[in-house]
Design goal:
- By secondary structure, the protein is of the alpha+beta class.
- It has two domains: 44 residues, no CATH class; 106 residues, 4-Layer Sandwich (S-adenosylmethionine decarboxylase).
- It contains two helices and eleven strands.
- A hairpin with a 4-residue loop joins β9 and β10.
- α1 runs antiparallel to α2.
């Protein structure tokens, strides 16, 4: 395996209590290039991208029809990830008490669609910038007492 082509110079910034900000990188030819520019891009595992999109399937969950509890849980997710909550809209979408909704963030969104009659919920967690969307996974697993959680990650806009 070849050594990395860029060396990060890290500075801690008090953007929020969860973030470490990397200001710049220096190429081997000693020229500077922005790593996390002001355009809200993200760097995950060394890949610059528009954001991380987590697709989360939650099986064997409880309280998937409780709108107040779902809202409280989404707020906890947003806070843990270091994101900025703008608005939450949740509603029952059918007679089975399933809940559909979204937490709109300055950094994108967290959405839910639940099927309580099947003890199942689908979550989309899409965030950019200095956020940590992966911190939502354990919060959702624990909050809904899930038997099983499956997560996949897609880096949106890789290489931008």
């Amino acid at each position: 395996m070849s050594p990395p082509s860029r060396h990060a110079i890290c500075t801690e910034s008090l953007l929020n209590s969860h973030a470490r900000h990397i200001d710049r990188v220096i190429d081997h030819d000693h020229t500077e290039a922005p790593l996390v520019p002001s355009d809200h891009m993200m760097v995950r595992r060394g890949v610059r991208c528009a954001g991380a999109h987590l697709i989360l399937d939650l099986y064997g969950g409880k309280r998937l029809d409780d709108i107040s509890y779902i809202e409280e849980t989404l707020v906890r997710c947003v806070e843990a990830a270091g994101a900025t909550l703008l608005h939450i809209h949740l509603h029952h979408f059918d007679d089975n008490s399933g809940v559909s909704g979204v937490a709109v963030l300055a950094e994108s969104h967290v959405s839910i669609h639940s099927w309580p009659e099947h003890d199942y919920a689908a979550f989309d967690i899409f965030m950019c910038g200095d956020t940590q969307p992966e911190l939502c996974v354990d919060i959702l697993r624990d909050a809904f007492a899930a038997d099983r959680v499956e997560v996949s990650e897609h880096l949106r806009g890789k290489g931008l």
